[in-house]
Design a protein that fits this description.
The chain has 150 residues and is α/β, with parallel strands linked by helices. The protein folds into two domains: 104 residues, D-Maltodextrin-Binding Protein, domain 2, CATH 3.40.190; 33 residues, no CATH class. The strands form three sheets. It has a four-stranded mixed beta sheet with strand order 3-7-2-6. It has a two-stranded antiparallel ribbon with strand order 1-8. Strands 4-5 form a two-stranded parallel sheet. The two termini are 35 Å apart.
Length: 150
């Protein structure tokens, strides 16, 4: 975007949050077509556009996926709903570090990679506090990336 600058910090895979007793829960990876017939808990487009778009993009080719009438604002709300059997959910990889009893996380194969970054206005690029923040964000992103690449 004109007048702005940015830096990609890290990228993550998409995971499926499933109840532990789901037949797919103990697999290493799941193809999106295998989600057919399951109820999908989603994110509202108006308040979670990135997550909503990710879910739509990942599931566009699934013919009989049942979109549950449940939308959640936060992943910490989604996980207990998955555990109680209300549906499944798609989550960024970092969510797999939030252990919830009754929930298994399985990588979604052939899903788009989620990219996270920071953006700023070019006219602010000379401010020391902004440069310090960007540097701190880059260092934290390296730690996050290393944690998931073990």
């Amino acid at each position: 975007m004109k007048g702005s600058n940015g830096k990609r910090l890290f990228k993550e895979d998409v995971y499926v949050a499933l109840p532990n007793d789901d037949l797919l829960a103990h697999r290493d990876e799941i193809d999106v077509q295998e989600l057919s017939g399951r109820r999908l808990i989603t994110y509202p487009r108006h308040s979670r556009p990135y997550l909503s778009s990710m879910v739509a993009q990942c599931t566009a080719q699934v013919e009989d996926l049942v979109v549950a009438d449940i939308e959640v604002l936060d992943k910490s709300t989604l996980l207990p709903l998955v555990a109680q059997g209300s549906g499944i959910g798609l989550v960024p990889q970092w969510v797999t570090e939030m252990p919830v009893n009754g929930v298994a996380f399985v990588k979604l194969s052939h899903a788009p990679v989620l990219q996270f970054g920071v953006a700023w206005r070019e006219r602010d690029a000379s401010r020391d506090s902004l440069l310090d923040f960007v540097q701190l964000a880059r260092e934290e992103a390296k730690r996050i990336d290393l944690r998931f690449r073990r």
